[in-house]
Write a structure and sequence with these properties.
Elements: H1 2-11, H2 19-27, H3 30-56, H4 69-74, H5 78-95, H6 97-105, H7 108-120, H8 134-154, H9 161-173, H10 188-195, H11 198-201, H12 205-226, H13 231-243, H14 257-277, H15 280-294, H16 301-315, H17 321-348, H18 361-372, H19 374-383, H20 402-417, H21 420-423, H22 426-432, H23 443-447, H24 455-464, H25 468-482, H26 484-501, H27 503-519, H28 525-534, H29 562-566, H30 569-611, H31 621-641, H32 654-679
Helix pairs in contact: 3-5, 8-12, 8-13, 9-10, 12-13, 12-14, 13-32, 14-15, 15-16, 15-17, 16-17, 16-31, 18-26, 19-27, 20-24, 25-26, 26-27, 27-31, 30-32, 31-32
């Protein structure tokens, strides 16, 4: 009778008031405890086995999709099995924790080692947390929420061919149909797309919602990062950050910039909180955000490189903090190595590419000189009066050296031996030739068709008429011949040879990089130098005299034919419906937002350049200098190599420039107060 009463009391839902009581009730009943544990282990095994089957089946000779016996047995697709594995594993993880401690404690050997591990990595007592002003945070959240809501109406849903590449990459990683592994894109945003439900629900809605939440939270994290230095100044800087509209612009654009910019701000927030609170959890948070940012856009690698260095100098003076720094670096190293191994296996079929993450630097350098930055370099050439006999031809020429001549010979071989390689491009180029305004350009005939049967003429035109189609076609064909690493190394050697053969090109690249960096601070260096060289009247203030419309603010539907080629009907319908609502509102309201964005850049940027030298005099200068040591290398590298104003890359730069201005202005204010008090 007593046993029966005990079982009934354990099973009765009326004796349990909440979830915590439920957990205690289950653990008080040995039989239910064991049942829950066994069930959790079954779910974990099933989930892990399903994920392993999806990932490892091709490499174990078990086949893909319908060829694999599990797929045939259950009638599932590879994607279905992956989703089952994820949900089953998560359910097992939810059920297992209440019982894990009991299991560990029942095994003395394990219990001792778990306690030893916990003691070793136990954080030192944290300092009292900074008391952030509640009213300030409410104001920031309300203002950010209003701006983000407006920008959800102002900016139309944007999906173009780069977005299609990210989506197809996500489909591959999650085992969905139509996926393709991308050897140079970072995996962070494709993983985010999968986790935000685009593959599961065939909808942009959840992705847009998450992007919007990031936009609202970014100003709050920005404020909390700077408030320990000066609460009032942090509030003003955050207000400027909100007025720049940078956190809100990318919410409906299906590209990685919204996620990327949020991760940088979150990483800076973690850095600040660790510095002031001595809480090692924020060390882990900061490094993790910088890691994910790097695996979202590769140019963030200076953050990941400088972060541990600066953290080392902070952590070495704090008890047991170096252990956590080593632990964080170790975890990130394992994750990075795992991705590199996965990438190598998927691209090369072996571990030959282990240690690499993109194999892109050589191809990118070639692209910049051959086509991507050629107009800017030609512009600087014109400014300096360096006329060339080649006119608008590429800087990359066969006469530059043996690598360049080898490139021409390889192009002739490719076109001669396999003309179908470019003929197959005609259907795709026909779609790309259709413009939203109804115009049409016969690019295939111009760049490929008229050279059919004449490989020598095609090779000559490659150098004489550089264009974006050649920069995709030729490297991809070289990859098939030389391998991924070989192609990247070869194109890199051609780029280096080009710079060596043309000494003036190094000067053009240096001026372009400097001009590009200054442009993100609102300084029109190219225009100013052009005015001086031409002998015209020198402008008094070298900020941008023209305020362009931000790119990607109105992406037309089905540009390049990519929406209809890569999206299901439901997602196409979402874009069309959104554009009917957003475009009229955008035409009416976006000019104001664009003005604010341009104003913050063109006014705040020069201020940051002028005052950042006073950071050593600011309060909490050690923190500000260390923050600058982490962020400025990324700022300089990214801006010098390719970021530009009016682009989708600005949101990740704006907050860092404002932080420089914030620290410099505080330094000037403190120096002024010190001088004033010294006089009296």
């Amino acid at each position: 009778m007593d046993v029966k009463r005990q079982v009934v009391s354990c099973m009765s839902p009326f004796s349990i008031k909440n979830l915590s009581q439920l957990t205690r009730g289950i653990t008080a009943c040995p039989k239910l405890d064991h049942i829950a544990l066994v069930f959790a282990l079954i779910l974990l095994v099933l989930g892990g086995g399903a994920i392993f089957a999806v990932v490892a089946a091709p490499y174990l000779g078990l086949g893909l999709q319908e060829e694999f016996f599990l797929y045939r047995l259950a009638g599932w697709s590879r994607s279905d099995l992956l989703r089952m594995g994820i949900f089953s594993g998560l359910a097992g993880l939810v059920l297992a924790p209440p019982n894990l401690k009991q299991i560990i404690d029942s095994w003395p050997w394990m219990a001792r080692r778990v306690r030893r591990f916990q003691a070793y990595f136990a954080p030192a007592p944290a300092e009292p947390p900074v008391a952030f002003h509640a009213r300030d945070q409410k104001i920031i959240l309300v203002a950010a929420g209003v701006f983000q809501a407006l920008y959800l109406l102002i900016i139309p849903l944007g999906f173009e061919c780069d977005a299609a590449m990210y989506l197809n990459f996500s489909r591959y990683l999650f085992g969905s149909e139509g996926g393709a592994f991308n050897y140079y894109r970072a995996p962070g945003f494709p993983i985010f797309l999968g986790l935000s439900g685009q593959l599961l629900f065939d909808s942009f809605i959840l992705t847009v919602v998450l992007h919007a939440v990031m936009g609202i939270l970014s100003p709050l994290l920005f404020y909390r990062a700077l408030a320990p230095v000066s609460r009032r100044a942090a509030l003003i800087a955050t207000g400027v950050f909100i007025l720049s509209t940078a956190p809100f612009h990318g919410a409906k654009i299906m590209l990685p910039e919204q996620l990327f910019a949020f991760l940088i701000v979150a990483g800076v927030y973690g850095f600040s909180r660790y510095y002031f609170s001595r809480d090692v959890r924020f060390l882990h948070l900061s490094l993790f955000c910088f890691f994910v940012a790097t695996f979202t856009r590769w140019e963030a690698n200076p953050l990941l490189f400088m972060g541990p260095i600066v953290f080392f100098f902070i952590a070495r003076g704090r008890a047991h903090h170096l252990r956590h720094l080593v632990l964080a670096i170790g975890i990130l190293a394992v994750l990075a190595t795992g991705w590199s191994a996965t990438r190598s296996r998927n691209i090369a079929g072996d571990m030959s590419l282990l240690g690499s993450f993109h194999n892109w630097a050589g191809r990118q350098s070639f692209w910049m000189i051959y086509w991507g930055k050629r107009p800017e370099l030609k512009g600087w050439e014109k400014n300096f009066g360096w006329n060339t006999a080649q006119g608008n031809a590429s800087f990359i020429r066969p006469e530059n050296g043996p690598q360049s001549r080898k490139l021409r010979n390889l192009i002739v071989e490719i076109v001669s031996e396999n003309p179908e390689s470019y003929r197959a491009l005609e259907p795709w180029m026909e779609r790309a030739q259709q413009f939203p305004d109804g115009t049409y350009g016969n690019y295939y005939e111009e760049y490929f068709g008229r050279f059919d049967g004449d490989p020598e003429a095609f090779a000559d035109n490659f150098f004489a008429q550089p264009n974006g189609f050649y920069t995709d076609y030729v490297p991809e064909e070289l990859r098939k011949r030389l391998g991924l690493a070989g192609m990247n190394q070869f194109l890199g050697s051609v780029a280096i040879e080009t710079v060596s053969a043309q000494p003036g090109l190094a000067s053009l690249l240096a001026m372009f990089s400097l001009s590009n960096l200054l442009s993100m601070f609102g300084i029109d260096a190219e225009g100013e130098i052009s005015v001086q060289i031409s002998g015209k009247q020198i402008s008094l203030f070298p900020v941008f005299t023209y305020w362009n419309k931000t790119h990607y603010s109105q992406i037309p539907y089905n540009i390049g034919g990519c929406a209809e080629a890569h999206l299901p009907t439901e997602m196409q319908r979402e874009i069309i419906t959104d554009h009917k609502v957003s475009f009229p509102i955008s035409n009416a309201l976006f000019p104001l937002g664009n003005f604010l964005r341009n104003f913050v850049r063109n006014a705040g940027g020069p201020v940051a350049l002028l005052v950042c030298w006073f950071i050593p005099f600011a309060p909490q200068r050690k923190f500000l200098l260390r923050l600058a040591a982490v962020t400025v290398p990324y700022l300089v590298l990214a801006c010098a190599l390719g970021y530009a104003p009016y682009s989708r890359y600005e949101p990740a730069v704006h907050p860092l420039i404002l932080m420089l201005a914030f620290g410099g202005l505080l330094g000037i204010a403190k120096k002024w107060n010190d001088l004033k008090h010294a006089r009296f």
